[in-house]
Design goal:
Elements (H helix, E strand, L loop, with lengths): L1 E3 L3 E5 L5 H8 L2 H5 L9 H11 L2 E5 L2 E15 L2 E8 L8 H11 L6 E6 L4 H9 L3 E5 L4 E6 L2
Parallel strand pairs: 5-6
Antiparallel strand pairs: 1-2, 2-3, 3-4, 4-5, 6-8, 7-8
């Protein structure tokens, strides 16, 4: 699977992506704002690639460098949970909004995505809202957004 957007290349991670993902996942700022609980070690990342099949995000003008990742985990028939991380230095430039739009553009009719965001993570909330996700549920710990492909 490969998705291209104006600025990005999004494709399934392979074992050769372990070093780039290790660098990305070593940033504690990212992990504090996400639900990822993986240690940034090569064996742990290799296992994540084999089991979760994440998508890596690269910029078209620097295709060898991983700047982020997306995960899609099956939650039922035609229902998936979306997760994502982006290098902190690139926050606020519309990159993750563009990446999520690329994923959404590939969905088949009748498919739903859900995403959980911490209430204090306004940046991730905006990514989802700009991609037509709707607030579905919320509590003190997280907000659940939902997108339904028509």
């Amino acid at each position: 699977m490969m998705i291209t957007t104006k600025r990005l290349i999004i494709q399934r991670a392979v074992i050769g992506d372990v070093p780039g993902l290790r660098t990305l996942l070593a940033d504690q700022r990212l992990l504090r704002l996400s639900r990822f609980t993986i240690l940034p070690t090569s064996p742990a990342i290799a296992m994540m690639i084999e089991t979760l099949h994440p998508l890596v995000i690269r910029q078209r003008n620097a295709p060898k460098h991983i700047i982020g990742m997306l995960t899609l985990q099956r939650r039922g028939e035609r229902k998936w949970e979306l997760g994502y991380l982006l290098q902190a230095a690139l926050w606020g430039h519309g990159i993750m909004t563009e990446a999520v739009a690329g994923v959404v553009s590939q969905l088949k009719a009748g498919t739903s995505l859900i995403a959980f965001v911490e209430p204090q993570n306004r940046g991730s909330q905006l990514v989802l809202e700009k991609n037509d996700f709707q607030r579905y549920r919320e509590d003190a710990w997280q907000i659940c957004y939902r997108y339904d492909q028509k």
